[in-house]
Design a protein that fits this description.
The longest helix has 25 residues. Helix 33 runs parallel beside helix 35. Helix content is 79%, strand content 0%. With 740 residues, the chain is an all-alpha fold. It contains 43 helices and no strands. The radius of gyration is 34 Å and the shape is elongated.
Length: 740
Amino acid sequence: MVIGLAGCSAESKEARYLRKGKKEFEKKDYLAAILHFKNAVSAKPLNAEPYYQLGLSYLAVGDFSAAAGNFRRATELNHRHIEAQVKLAGLMANSRSEEMHKEAEKRMLDALTVSPENLDVLDTLAAAEIRLGKTESAEAHLLRALQNSPAHMPAAVALARIRAARKDVTGAEEVLKQVSQQNQKSPDARVYLGGFYLSQGKAAEAEQQYREAIAIDAKHGPALLALANLLKREGRAGEAEQAYRTLSKLPDKTYRPLHALYLLQTGKTDEGIAELAKLETADPSDRTVRTELVNAYLKLNRVADAAKVLTAALEKNAVDVDARLQRARIYLLSEKNSEAQNDLNEVLHYRSNSAEAHYLLSKISQSRGDQTTQKQELGEVLRLQPDYLAARLELVELLTKSGGAKSAIEILNQTPPEQKKHGPVVLQRNWVLLALGQRAEARKNIDDILAVRPLPEAWLQDAALKALEKNYPGAKASVDKALDGNPEDIRALSLMVQMYASQKQLSTAVQRLREHAIRHPGIPEVQQLLGQVLSANGDSAGARQSYNSALAAKTGYLPAELALAELDTAEGKRDDARKRLATIISRHPDNVAARMLLARVDVVDGNMPAAMEQYRKVVDSDPKNALALNNVAYILSDSKPDEALKYAQLAKQHAPENATVDDTLGWIYYQKGLYRLAVTYLQNAVDREDSARRKYHLAMAYLKAGDPQRGRQTLDAALKMDPNLSEAQVARRLFGQSQN
């Protein structure tokens, strides 16, 4: 009796949770529905129905992986649960995997034996067969569905698509006409037929169908949207605006922002923004409207307004993941990396499988120069979302440039089949092939591209390959063609400079670069490159002029501002450098390069507290910045060696082969009286990258470690290199005391 009562109690609980879940599902509160269905699963874990309902709820929120898992579990518990089988097979048929398509086909063939005339089974089976290329079998199953139910629109639409694909336009039209006649009171049938006419260039016939659909149901969203889009396409602005206005007043939230978006697209910016803002104020929970408002602000460069909308949303709901993602993007645009990282960490706390969050984190790592973490984040993006093409291409490019071409080609080989022939993928593959020395395959690919479409990128690759083969005339001609198609391609200009330099014709390279800059004065990157080449060849005045030209082309252009600050510093104009850097930091508080340069200016001026403040701020925003960590350690080494050691060890962790870091570590151990350990690190520093200062440090460590002879030899070598360093006086005094 106890067992029986317990069973009744579980069944009662399950029924109660199922009822509540379905009620929330009907209200479209899918998250609440998920909670109730999970409780139903807990109450009776061996019943298929709660899993099926849970799958429907996950499907509604777009979590296809969780939906598929629950549908699969439902079918495992009850193989004859046809609805679950159909939903699972539908997801499989829409996947990119041929194996999944085959499994979907098998499941639906099995389902036909249980329910031979089930329309959903026939539709889903046909969808799987189409993906497998079995169009004749698919057509037969769709005809069978229509024979059983002539008014069944999904089958008619799928059948029409099959016939249209094989150029049987008449047959496709006939199918849609018949289903429309069978559904006299259905606006959907007329929308499908209108869409078919539009695809055939018959705008008048399409418009007639859309208007007939609206006559049946004046509030039918798909028909109104199709008509509005057609009117916009036809240039009938007044009618289109009225159609979008009608559409935006429908109860369905999906359509609310469309009139405002039309206003924005047609140049009525203020009106469009005002309408979106009004909609967002009326219903702050409507994330679609909020997203469109934020995007509109960003297109107008009203970054502060966009951030304000998102911050207000997060004050009301701190777990609004979409708002945090959007705000993180804005922070990245404003170079507020720390704030962006905080938001992205919160996103991952609530949505650990967010590929977009990991992609944005990779951008933060890129801006900090942290390639190791950047690679890790891009790899995680691809694990979560293999078709995220931008992440794949960026990872391949990063690996190729850092000597990992073999890994890069493996990642390219894992590209989803439907993306492998995309132009950007093929072009990126060519760069990897060139890095691997596989010139014959690269040559064939480049020639194939140029034969079909002479893309600037392909001409650049042609130039790079010819340069490797020492065919400089041919390479220069290809560079010119690349620049004709893309005059701001700095890679092409850099290749040109390298080729002339390798032939000892640098003056010709500078002249050609000047001519290009004169022809394209509005491209700041070109002016910047000219400045860099001039600066590297000792023409500071010419470089300064080019950097100022870059700023004239684009106000506030950061690379030029930083380059000018570098020039000011090099020329002893430290006050000018400090003012310029202070302006940069006020606009870009997370800019590491500006803070590092300002700290360097402070060090030259002997203002160590100010330098320390800048280095610490860099470390706060970028905890893996080995140079900033090292410099904090070096400044602290004399007065606070224990604290200095912690920073130096972190620097060593992030830059294990860096000679400067080894020198700092050795010097700290010297200050702590650990002379033999000091010698080890200081000797490593000298071996990796010799300098007078490092030799002075090593000489003093040898003396204290009880090896005065090697100390004297090292000191003499340091004095020959630079007898005027401050360390020279300390070393002389120390060795003089030891002799006394």
